[in-house]
Design goal:
The structure holds 2 protein chains of 2 kinds. Chain A is built from 11 helices and 2 strands, in the order H-H-H-H-H-H-H-H-H-E-E-H-H. Chain A is mostly helical. Chain A has 2 domains: 32 residues; 205 residues, no CATH class. Chain A has a two-stranded antiparallel sheet with strand order 1-2. Chain A starts with a helix and ends with a helix. In chain B, helix 3 runs antiparallel to helix 5. Chain B is elongated, with a radius of gyration of 22 Å. The chains are: A mainly alpha, B mainly alpha. At the A-B interface, helix 1, helix 2, helix 3, helix 4 and helix 10 of A face helix 1, helix 2, helix 3, helix 4 and helix 5 of B. Chain A: One of its GO terms (cellular component) is plasma membrane.
Chain lengths: 276, 142
């Protein structure tokens, strides 16, 4: 037992030294390097450059351009992983819901004091506003659908803690089912946006790709980079918008599931054991 | 000692090396947490620290040294919406590498998804068996 402990400690220290040596001498060269890699230069030159019309993404934000255009499929499957994780969580928590039983409850008796409740009422619209701004400006400034959605999910979390779960589910009607519907709508939006240019190409009768954003050399259609004088960077704006809804609804769903009273969850689990 | 010689151990170089060694230390401590702590909750916390250290390391790799002493490297965001050719050239000369940042964004989301799933799994294990100790959970029959 004691030998095992020493072996553990030794192997971990050896790993740290090995990683440090490998990264310093072979992997990365000098850090921090005053020059960036050629690939990075390519992204920086083409992210918003009207002089290379078949290469550019028309978004000044290089990270969003990579996430939703250059490596867009990557992000599509990442969204799928997130979706599947929530489906898995729902499957583990099956049967444990708050969908009925809200009739006889005096909802206003639950929760924290009047001061915290009033402060929360003032804060929630501000949180929603800031998170919408993060998501809708995702193609212009740092941020995007995922970050905005995560920020927006703080609002229902605050209400859950300060007003109680019953308030959210029975008064605000943010039930699990409505959150799943909102989430599915967001995912459908992402799905449709990734096909938008292809459908446009089919209608007009020219070449187009799945997940295409701006015109390419052999597929010269794309979504408009600007709408009414303000830059939307083609599909990037729509991806961020729909991802915002999908992520915000997904997180709210998880928070509601996590805040179901323990007594209720144990009742369901006990019933399951008797059933077998 | 090529690395130290190149940097000549100025204060910024020292700080950067210090940061990298802190990340390595973090990685190792969190690996210890994942392997050796018996509680599932502590394993999950250690896993969070592990993925966050990896993310910080990736961001540090994408960092670009200041082009000159007084002009800092900038985020990979152009601050004009209709740039001239000269704007793009000067932007590419000072901006940091956007690719690690995009990869870290993906890694954060996937890490979060996995974390959520693990949390729900642990919660149900605790509700059913009354423990989060893996040694006890492994001995359970049925």
């Amino acid at each position: 037992m004691r030998l095992g402990r020493y072996l553990q400690a030794f192997s971990l220290v050896a790993l740290a030294v090995l990683l440090a040596v490998a990264l310093t001498y072979k992997g990365l060269g000098d850090l921090p390097n005053p020059a960036v890699r050629d690939l990075a230069l390519w992204y920086l030159y083409t992210t918003l450059n009207p002089e290379v019309p078949n290469m550019t993404v028309m978004s000044p934000e290089a990270v969003t351009a990579i996430v939703w255009d250059y490596r867009g499929l990557d992000t599509l499957f990442e969204t799928m992983v997130f979706f599947l994780a929530i489906v898995g969580a729902l499957a583990i928590m099956r049967g444990i819901t708050l969908n009925e039983g809200g009739e006889g409850l005096h909802i206003e008796r639950y929760g924290l004091s009047l001061i915290t409740k009033t402060a929360t009422k003032l804060l929630v619209p501000l949180i929603i506003g800031v998170s919408a701004s993060i998501a809708l400006h995702g193609h212009l400034t740092p941020g995007g659908g995922f970050q905005g959605g995560s920020a927006a999910a703080v609002a229902p979390l605050l209400v859950l803690v300060i007003f109680s779960t019953y308030y959210v589910v029975f008064k605000l009607r943010l039930s699990e089912l409505s959150m799943i519907s909102l989430r599915t709508l967001g995912l459908m939006g992402i799905y449709m946006t990734s096909f938008a240019t292809l459908i446009l190409g089919l209608v007009i009768g020219v070449n187009a790709y799945i997940f295409q954003n701006m015109p390419k050399a052999n597929a010269f259609i794309g979504l408009p980079p600007a709408l009414g004088g303000s830059l939307i960077s083609g599909t990037l704006f729509f991806f961020n918008l729909f991802e915002f809804f999908a992520v915000a609804a997904g997180f709210t769903l998880v928070f509601i599931l996590l805040s179901i009273p323990e007594v209720k969850a144990r009742e369901v689990l006990k019933g399951e054991e008797h059933g077998h | 000692m090529r690395f130290l010689k190149v940097r000549n151990m100025d204060i910024n170089g020292f700080l950067f090396v210090f940061m990298l060694s802190t990340i390595m230390l973090n990685l190792v401590i969190s690996l210890y947490g994942v392997f050796a702590r018996p509680s599932l909750i502590k394993k999950i916390i250690a896993l969070t620290i592990l993925s966050d250290s990896g993310n910080v390391l990736a961001i540090a790799v994408g960092f670009r040294d200041w082009p000159s002493g007084w002009s800092p490297s900038t985020p990979p965001v152009l601050n004009v919406t209709s740039p001239k050719a000269s704007d793009v050239v000067s932007f590419a000369r000072v901006a940091v590498d956007p690719l690690p940042q995009a990869l870290v964004l993906t890694a954060v989301v996937i890490g979060l998804a996995v974390m959520l799933f693990l949390v729900f799994l642990t919660l149900q294990i605790y509700r059913l068996y009354g423990t989060t100790d893996v040694r006890k959970v492994a001995k359970l029959k049925g």
